[in-house]
Amino acid sequence: MRVDFYHLEKSPVERALPQLLERVLQAGHRAVVLASSPERVEAFAGVLWTYNPNSWLPHGTAKDGSPAEHPVWLTDNDENPNQANMLVLTEGMVSANLPDYERCLDLFDGTNPEATAAARERWSAAKSAGHELHYWQQTPSGWQEKGA
């Protein structure tokens, strides 16, 4: 399984998440976004409705129901109710179900020393588990893959 770590330095997760999800959907994938609380799930849902007036990302939450109908499912539970093949971890979340996905995107706040240290621990755990690791750093012009 492939795990991509996204080091957020230029924008918060609320700005980076929609752009990454657009790429996920354009590639024909389905995604679960794991957030830290029900409040953050609803905040992300609001962002996906409003981040770009010329774009729309189809998504749902437990409040919407019918997870199978939503290519992006926002949750604070370690679940895969929409049969996603991509997992997006935010705010330091971890999943016991990584092997159930083809790929995981781990977004972390590079401006927060505690978040960066926690991401390093997740990197080490993923490496020990034998996952294929990739590291992406946010630059003014977009994402740049750095050596793993």
Report on the architecture of this protein:
The chain is α/β, with parallel strands linked by helices and 148 residues long. It has a single domain, classed as 3-Layer(aba) Sandwich (Rossmann fold), CATH 3.40.50. The chain is built from three helices and seven strands. The protein has helices at 13-26, 38-50, 113-128; strands at 2-8, 31-34, 72-75, 86-89, 103-109, 132-139, 142-146. A seven-stranded mixed sheet has the order 3-2-4-5-1-6-7, with helices on both faces. Strand 6 and strand 7 form a beta hairpin. The radius of gyration is 14 Å and the shape is globular. The mean pLDDT is 95.
The count of helical stretches stands at 3
Helix content: 25-40%
Shape field: globular
CATH domain class: Alpha Beta
Class inferred from helices and paired strands: alpha/beta
Stretches where pLDDT falls below 50 for ≥5 residues? none
Task: Write down the Rg.
Answer: 14 Å
- Spell out the CATH superfamily: DNA polymerase III subunit chi
Strand order of the largest sheet: 3-2-4-5-1-6-7
**CATH level-3 fold name:** Rossmann fold
> Total number of β-strand segments?
7
Strand % is 25-35%
The tally of domains stands at 1
Mean pLDDT: 95
User: Major beta sheet, specifics?
Assistant: 7 strands, mixed
End-to-end Cα distance: 15 Å
CATH architecture: 3-Layer(aba) Sandwich
Run of helices and strands: EHEHEEEHEE
Give short descriptive properties of this protein.
single chain, about 150 residues, alpha/beta, Rossmann fold, seven-stranded mixed beta sheet, 3 helices, globular
Summarize the structure.
The protein is α/β, with parallel strands linked by helices and 148 residues long. It is 29% helix and 26% strand.
